[in-house]
Amino acid sequence: MSKVDEITRESWIMSTFPEWGTWLNEEIENEEVKPGTVAMWWLGCTGIWFKTPGGCNITIDLWTGNGKRTHGDGRMKEGHQMANMCGARAMQPNLRAVPFVLDPFAVRQVDAVLATHYHQDHMSAEYAAHVIKSGMTTTDQEGRRIPVPFIGPKKSVELWMKWGVPAERCVTVKPGDVIKIKDVEITALDSFDRTCLVTTDSTGPDREELTGKCPSDMDEKAVNYLVKTPGGNIYHSGDSHYSIYYAKHGKDYQVDVAFGSYGENPVGMQDKMTSVDILRMAEALRAKVVIPIHYDVWTNFMADINEIRVLYDMKKDRLDYKFHPFFWEVGGKYVYPTDKDKRAYHHRRGFEDCFEAPQNIPFRSCL
Ligand SMILES: [Fe+2]
After folding, report:
1. Domain layout of the chain by residue ranges
2. From the CA of 156, how far away is ligand 1's center (Å)?
3. Are the C-beta atoms of 58 and 50 separated by less than 8 Å?
4. I want to staple 232 with a disulfide (CB 3.0 to 4.6 A). Which of 226, 256, 310, 316 is the partner?
């Protein structure tokens, strides 16, 4: 058979997807985390992989799906949280704008699966299936071998269980709860994701009527996390909007690095923090480094990180900022505190061994 005869749509998908294959899986596995540091990788959206010197690997919000893939009937479900929020009915053009940098089915070891909330871009049934079916285990504080736990607020746990994750593997957390995993201590904190408050269980016409109702309890729907590691304390704010209560978290806890969900909100929408909010959040949390995330993933919420840079430069002296922003790339690694003075990330450029092997050129001056 010729190559043309052999090729099918399925063979194309299998040979090109996920776009990064197992490149990042291998990089994470091979990383030796030095004492007193924590290594992190951005998996896209708000997905972060943490790896510590004590061999603790955890993921927060690893998600492996996408957005719109067809125009369909051009309509949004009238009970979708965005429709609940602004009364729109036309389909939201949220196409996935970043490649898949991790193969969830090639993950060999993780010690806990965490979610900040239950929106579709923050949890993964595929990843859950792999963790369950592969029989992945970890060790508890007493050194006993236990199945890898799934940790999240009540609504996230309900979704995992609906997918078939056994109840005994799920840990429901609410603000104030503390969980220890190897050399990491995770504190669940208040979320400020007001989009979660207008999320109804049904997205159909039978959706719950919210008008005139006191909002449901955010603590059951979403949490933020403070991840205390040997390299420093990392604050993951999930999809939180701006809140003055960041200042209380900043007084209650030492925050070294803060992740904030940044985006260019379409007119009629208030779902992501703006550049101003990201700077205010970092100042309130008394963070040392702030890293915008989530702006990468949706075509209709993509934002320019230079806006944060410009505002930061305008305000840092007058307001005596004690932090700086770091601009990351999906698939990239950030080690704290090793990389604490870096301002921006670039993927490895390669060719480090140039001119170390013989060239094959007509003559040197052609270069
Ligand atoms: Fe999100």
Report:
1. 17-327
2. 13
3. yes
4. 256
Residue 171, H or E segment: strand 170-172
- Between the CA of 194 and the centroid of ligand 1 the distance, in Å, is 12
Q: How far is the CA of 61 from the centre of ligand 1 (A)?
A: 9
Tokens of 129: 């299936």
User: First CA to last CA across the chain, in angstroms?
Assistant: 42
- In angstroms, rounded to a whole number, what is the distance separating the alpha carbons of residues 121 and 136? 23
Identity of residue 131: V
Output phi, psi for 82, to 5 deg.
-70, -35
Cα of 45 vs centre of ligand 1, distance in Å, is 7
pLDDT of residue 215: 78
User: What spacing in Å lies between the alpha carbon of 293 and ligand 1's midpoint?
Assistant: 10
Cα distance between residue 282 and residue 234, in whole Å: 12
Model pLDDT for residues 311-331, shown as the tens digit of each residue: 999 999 999 999 999 999 999
Sheet (strand 257-261) strand order: 178-181, 184-190, 223-229, 232-236, 257-261, 289-293, 324-325
**Whether pLDDT at 94 is above 90:** yes
Annotation: CATH topology of 17-327: Metallo-beta-lactamase; Chain A (3.60.15)
54 alpha carbon to ligand 1 midpoint, in Å? 30
CA 312 to chain CA mean position, Å: 23
193 alpha carbon – ligand 1 mean position (Å): 10
CB 94: neighbour CB atoms within 10 A? Answer: 17
